[in-house]
Design a protein that fits this description.
By secondary structure, this protein is α+β, with helices and mostly antiparallel strands. It is 20% helix and 37% strand.
Length: 148
């Protein structure tokens, strides 16, 4: 009787431990781009704005240690040059989405400070007639399993 009760406690404790590990690693299966990741928590729906300008550079960045790379662009608007974090490379590659120097685009996204400089995390990118939706109005990534 005592041994079966002990076994139940061990099984319950193991299940709780595995659940905690799964929650902690939720964003890692997406290369660190998951909804609850530290990086994605920087997105603030209260700071969303839309900017339009010319792409002056495009490259790959790894926003935080342990993340997979993401597409990054610098956009020259009428007011400034701003760094734009577009999204995870694997997600954009799946959609065959690219950006090139010289293109005019419109970005809707959350203005943040990244590495002590102004930047934006994109929610939408409009390039010509193409609109790529990356996040919903609450900032939940389109690639997230927790998307509502």
């Amino acid at each position: 009787m005592k041994s079966s009760r002990f076994l139940v406690h061990v099984v319950v404790a193991a299940a709780i431990s595995l659940s905690c590990v799964a929650i902690a690693l939720a964003g890692r299966g997406m290369g660190g781009w998951g909804e609850g990741s530290r990086y994605n928590r920087m997105y603030d729906p209260k700071t969303v704005e839309t900017v339009r300008g010319e792409v002056i550079s495009v490259d790959k960045i790894t926003p935080r240690k342990g993340m997979s790379y993401g597409l990054h662009a610098v956009l020259r608007t009428e007011k400034e040059e701003i760094s734009v974090h577009v999204g995870p490379g694997w997600y954009l590659e799946k959609r065959a989405f690219t950006l090139a120097k010289g293109e005019t685009i419109e970005i809707k996204g959350s203005r943040i400070t990244f590495r002590k400089k102004p930047a934006m995390i994109a929610a939408e990118v409009k390039k010509g007639d193409v609109l790529l939706k990356l996040r919903d109005e609450n900032g939940v990534p389109a690639w997230s399993a927790g998307r509502r």
